[in-house]
Design brief:
The chain is mainly β. The protein contains two helices and 14 strands, in the order ααββββββββββββββ.
Protein backbone atom coordinates (compact mmCIF):
# COMPACT_ATOMS: atom_id res chain seq x y z
CA UNK A 1 0.00 0.00 0.00
CA UNK A 2 2.87 2.40 0.80
CA UNK A 3 4.22 1.95 -2.71
CA UNK A 4 1.03 3.01 -4.46
CA UNK A 5 0.13 5.84 -2.08
CA UNK A 6 2.34 8.43 -3.88
CA UNK A 7 0.67 7.49 -7.18
CA UNK A 8 -2.79 7.86 -5.69
CA UNK A 9 -1.85 11.26 -4.23
CA UNK A 10 -0.39 12.42 -7.56
CA UNK A 11 -3.49 11.25 -9.43
CA UNK A 12 -5.70 13.11 -6.96
CA UNK A 13 -3.72 16.34 -7.43
CA UNK A 14 -3.83 16.07 -11.22
CA UNK A 15 -7.56 15.31 -11.14
CA UNK A 16 -8.18 18.26 -8.79
CA UNK A 17 -6.31 20.66 -11.08
CA UNK A 18 -8.08 19.32 -14.18
CA UNK A 19 -11.52 19.74 -12.63
CA UNK A 20 -10.89 23.15 -11.07
CA UNK A 21 -13.63 25.56 -12.09
CA UNK A 22 -12.87 28.98 -13.47
CA UNK A 23 -14.20 30.70 -10.33
CA UNK A 24 -11.98 28.58 -8.07
CA UNK A 25 -8.95 29.52 -10.15
CA UNK A 26 -9.58 33.28 -10.30
CA UNK A 27 -7.33 35.69 -8.49
CA UNK A 28 -8.07 38.99 -10.26
CA UNK A 29 -11.20 40.94 -11.06
CA UNK A 30 -10.44 40.85 -14.79
CA UNK A 31 -13.06 39.08 -16.90
CA UNK A 32 -12.66 35.46 -17.95
CA UNK A 33 -12.25 34.51 -20.64
CA UNK A 34 -10.27 37.44 -22.10
CA UNK A 35 -7.65 38.02 -24.78
CA UNK A 36 -4.05 39.00 -24.07
CA UNK A 37 -0.80 38.74 -26.04
CA UNK A 38 2.71 37.43 -25.47
CA UNK A 39 5.15 39.97 -24.02
CA UNK A 40 8.35 38.10 -24.92
CA UNK A 41 9.92 36.43 -27.96
CA UNK A 42 10.11 33.09 -26.17
CA UNK A 43 7.52 31.89 -23.63
CA UNK A 44 7.23 28.48 -21.98
CA UNK A 45 3.82 26.82 -21.93
CA UNK A 46 3.60 24.47 -18.94
CA UNK A 47 1.29 21.56 -18.15
CA UNK A 48 0.29 23.14 -14.82
CA UNK A 49 0.43 26.42 -12.88
CA UNK A 50 4.01 26.44 -11.59
CA UNK A 51 7.65 26.01 -12.53
CA UNK A 52 7.63 22.46 -11.20
CA UNK A 53 5.34 21.45 -14.08
CA UNK A 54 7.04 20.35 -17.30
CA UNK A 55 7.28 22.61 -20.33
CA UNK A 56 4.87 21.29 -22.95
CA UNK A 57 5.48 23.88 -25.66
CA UNK A 58 7.57 27.00 -26.31
CA UNK A 59 5.96 29.96 -28.06
CA UNK A 60 8.49 31.86 -30.19
CA UNK A 61 6.34 34.69 -31.49
CA UNK A 62 6.12 37.96 -29.57
CA UNK A 63 2.66 39.61 -29.55
CA UNK A 64 0.81 36.38 -30.36
CA UNK A 65 -2.81 36.70 -29.19
CA UNK A 66 -3.92 34.20 -26.55
CA UNK A 67 -7.12 33.63 -24.64
CA UNK A 68 -6.92 33.47 -20.83
CA UNK A 69 -9.42 30.89 -19.57
CA UNK A 70 -8.40 30.57 -15.89
CA UNK A 71 -6.11 32.06 -13.25
CA UNK A 72 -4.22 30.42 -10.40
CA UNK A 73 -1.95 32.61 -8.29
CA UNK A 74 0.55 34.18 -10.74
CA UNK A 75 -0.29 31.70 -13.53
CA UNK A 76 -2.75 31.95 -16.39
CA UNK A 77 -4.27 29.04 -18.30
CA UNK A 78 -4.27 30.11 -21.92
CA UNK A 79 -5.46 28.81 -25.28
CA UNK A 80 -3.97 29.70 -28.65
CA UNK A 81 -5.76 29.88 -32.00
CA UNK A 82 -4.98 26.21 -32.70
CA UNK A 83 -6.59 25.10 -29.42
CA UNK A 84 -3.34 24.39 -27.57
CA UNK A 85 -3.93 24.85 -23.84
CA UNK A 86 -1.43 25.28 -21.02
CA UNK A 87 -0.17 27.55 -18.26
CA UNK A 88 1.96 30.68 -18.60
CA UNK A 89 3.32 33.00 -15.90
CA UNK A 90 1.48 36.32 -15.93
CA UNK A 91 4.74 38.26 -16.34
CA UNK A 92 4.99 36.83 -19.87
CA UNK A 93 1.61 38.29 -20.91
CA UNK A 94 0.57 41.75 -22.01
CA UNK A 95 -2.85 43.38 -22.03
CA UNK A 96 -2.11 44.73 -25.53
CA UNK A 97 -4.75 43.42 -27.90
CA UNK A 98 -3.45 41.64 -30.97
CA UNK A 99 -5.19 39.60 -33.66
CA UNK A 100 -4.21 37.01 -36.25
CA UNK A 101 -5.65 36.79 -39.76
CA UNK A 102 -7.38 33.43 -40.29
CA UNK A 103 -8.69 31.45 -43.24
CA UNK A 104 -7.48 32.81 -46.56
CA UNK A 105 -5.75 35.93 -47.91
CA UNK A 106 -7.79 38.93 -46.69
CA UNK A 107 -7.97 42.56 -47.84
CA UNK A 108 -7.37 45.33 -45.32
CA UNK A 109 -9.70 48.20 -46.26
CA UNK A 110 -9.64 51.95 -45.67
CA UNK A 111 -13.24 51.94 -44.44
CA UNK A 112 -15.39 49.39 -42.61
CA UNK A 113 -17.22 48.21 -45.73
CA UNK A 114 -16.67 45.55 -48.38
CA UNK A 115 -16.13 48.06 -51.19
CA UNK A 116 -13.74 50.28 -49.15
CA UNK A 117 -10.36 51.13 -50.68
CA UNK A 118 -7.98 48.15 -50.55
CA UNK A 119 -4.87 48.97 -48.51
CA UNK A 120 -3.09 45.61 -48.06
CA UNK A 121 -3.54 41.92 -48.76
CA UNK A 122 -2.90 39.92 -45.61
CA UNK A 123 -1.88 36.25 -45.56
CA UNK A 124 -3.29 33.87 -42.92
CA UNK A 125 -1.14 34.06 -39.78
CA UNK A 126 -0.29 37.76 -40.15
CA UNK A 127 -0.56 39.56 -36.81
CA UNK A 128 -1.80 43.08 -36.19
CA UNK A 129 -2.64 45.36 -33.30
CA UNK A 130 -6.34 45.53 -32.56
CA UNK A 131 -7.46 49.17 -32.37
CA UNK A 132 -11.27 49.09 -32.45
CA UNK A 133 -14.26 46.93 -33.34
CA UNK A 134 -17.65 48.11 -34.58
CA UNK A 135 -20.27 45.52 -35.44
CA UNK A 136 -18.82 43.22 -38.14
CA UNK A 137 -15.56 45.16 -38.64
CA UNK A 138 -12.36 45.68 -36.66
CA UNK A 139 -9.69 48.32 -37.17
CA UNK A 140 -6.15 47.00 -36.98
CA UNK A 141 -2.64 48.32 -37.36
CA UNK A 142 -0.46 46.08 -39.47
CA UNK A 143 3.10 47.43 -39.31
CA UNK A 144 2.01 51.06 -39.57
CA UNK A 145 -0.86 50.61 -42.01
CA UNK A 146 -4.21 51.10 -40.28
CA UNK A 147 -7.36 49.76 -41.82
CA UNK A 148 -10.47 47.66 -41.43
CA UNK A 149 -10.95 43.90 -41.67
CA UNK A 150 -14.08 41.87 -41.12
CA UNK A 151 -14.21 40.49 -37.59
CA UNK A 152 -14.90 36.97 -38.90
CA UNK A 153 -11.43 36.99 -40.53
CA UNK A 154 -9.64 37.54 -37.21
CA UNK A 155 -8.71 35.43 -34.21
CA UNK A 156 -8.26 37.38 -30.99
CA UNK A 157 -11.57 39.20 -30.69
CA UNK A 158 -14.97 37.97 -29.52
CA UNK A 159 -17.99 38.00 -31.89
CA UNK A 160 -19.98 40.57 -29.89
CA UNK A 161 -17.09 42.68 -28.59
CA UNK A 162 -17.34 46.36 -29.58
CA UNK A 163 -14.86 49.03 -28.45
CA UNK A 164 -12.99 52.11 -29.64
Amino acid sequence: MRRIMPFILAAFIVFSMATMTVTEARDTNLPLPRFVSLKADEVNLRTGPGQRYPIDWVFVRRALPLEVTAEFDQWRRIRDQDGTVGWVHRSMLSGERMVVVIGAVRTLRGEPKSNGVALLRLEPGVQGSLLACQNAWCRIDQQGTKGWLQRAYLWGVYPSENFE
